[in-house]
Specification:
The chain is of the alpha+beta class and 402 residues long. It has eleven helices and 20 strands.
Length: 402
């Protein structure tokens, strides 16, 4: 069977689904190719351990494709403030951010992966211009006019534009022979959820430690918090063998004064994920555009991975929408403009997160003193803090073309 479509999106995660919805609402015929089954929310008392800190630009995109209001609002937590603490034993650096100082109502929103994907799956069911296929891609051929994808059952898909939203191990990127620079951080993210004895007041908290890595406790609805502990590999192995009650005791040294006793959320679930840096040489090839983790992977310390992927989607949608009427959406000039539009933002985020990881990984005393003094100095510069927050919250672009 030969299937023809304007745009084919490969990838079954949130970035791929949003891409398909955005193009469909812009009037394009879209084929979404992926393997994952429809997402469902956890049981009523369970909370997904995989969460995202979505910024204002990400929310604007989700609102434009009518997904934000379809999520379960009771499972979304606003972030009203952030408290970041350094690691000097005598005078730890501090950085405090809040919505009032940033002149916004909310800094970000903590959203469960399952909550987001269930809303996306529901929206896709009511998107008549999106056809979904659960199949495995086997081969990709590119011509001047088309991208042709051969599936494992022998069927073929012909598209003017192929969007690779298939993650860090992207099949699409590999088929296009796009080089990548990849490096392990020799850290693993330990993610799980706890209840806290004291209210968190919608504050996201983060601690930097040369010995124990980067610990973040993000607010969930009610007196619940989500842990993202970017731990050195040797410590991550120890944590993997411990009970969550034991991990809670370790965390008490950081958060007991603010959050009180932590108790593992029932049922107990923990995930451990390897952390790497991935930079793609380019995010565009003939008839192909990469978005999300297929194009770049950053350290989670700033919580910007999903936001960076959604920003790719916004840029790709707008670049295609602004092309000349006689130019098809997979034209090389269109894709070159898309790649240029994302280069600075991606590079800045990768340099910032990578630099912070390297800076706080060193236990050299003079460097430790300097980085903590730098945090305290920045904390006394409100204009600069607002500028940093403005970038983290995303450059909110017009979505009227979606």
């Amino acid at each position: 069977m030969r299937l023809q479509t304007t745009i084919c999106v490969i990838g079954s995660g949130a970035v791929g689904k949003v891409t398909a919805l955005g193009f469909a609402q812009a009037g394009h015929d879209v084929l979404l190719l992926g393997q994952a089954p429809p997402s469902t929310l956890p049981a009523s008392q369970a909370w997904d351990v995989r969460v995202y800190a979505l910024n204002h630009a990400a929310r604007a995109l989700l609102e434009s494709v009518r997904v934000w209001d379809a999520m379960d609002e009771a499972r979304i937590a606003p972030v009203e403030a952030m408290k970041v603490v350094g690691d000097d034993p005598t005078q730890a650096g501090r950085l405090d951010f809040d919505a009032f100082g940033a002149r916004v109502g909310t800094l970000a929103w903590i959203v469960e992966d399952a909550n987001l994907n269930q809303a996306l799956d529901t929206a896709l069911k009511f998107a008549p211009k999106v056809k979904q296929i659960a199949a495995q891609s086997r081969d990709l051929q590119i011509s001047d006019e088309l991208a042709t994808i051969t599936l494992d059952n022998g069927d073929t898909i012909e598209a003017s534009l192929l969007v690779g939203a298939d993650g860090a191990q992207s099949w699409v990127r590999g088929q296009c022979d796009i080089d990548i620079a990849s490096r392990s951080y020799y850290q693993r993210a330990v993610v799980t959820n706890f209840t806290c004895a004291l209210p968190h007041h919608d504050v996201a908290r983060q601690w930097f430690s040369a010995d124990e890595g980067i610990i973040a406790l993000l607010p969930l609805p009610g007196q619940r918090v989500s842990l993202v502990w970017s731990a050195p590999q040797h410590l991550a192995q120890q944590l993997a063998g411990e009970s969550l009650a034991s991990i809670a005791q370790r965390l008490a040294a950081y958060c007991a004064a603010d959050l009180g006793e932590l108790t593992p959320l029932q049922p107990e679930v923990v995930k451990i994920l390897a952390l790497n840096l991935l930079h793609s040489q380019t995010i565009a090839a003939p008839r192909v555009a990469l978005v999300g983790d297929a194009a770049h992977v950053v350290h989670p310390l700033a919580g910007q991975g999903m936001n960076l992927g959604f920003a790719d989607v916004v840029s790709l949608l707008q670049t295609v929408a602004e092309r000349d009427a006689q130019t098809d959406c997979g034209d090389a000039r269109v894709l070159a403009r898309y790649a240029r539009s994302r280069k600075e933002d991606i590079l800045l985020m990768q340099l910032t997160t990578d630099g912070l990881v390297r800076l706080f990984a060193s236990d050299f005393p003079p460097l430790r003193l300097a980085r903590n003094m730098g945090m305290n100095l920045l904390n006394r510069l409100p204009a600069l803090k607002r500028q940093l927050l403005s970038h983290a919250m995303g450059k909110i672009k017009s979505t009227t073309t979606l």
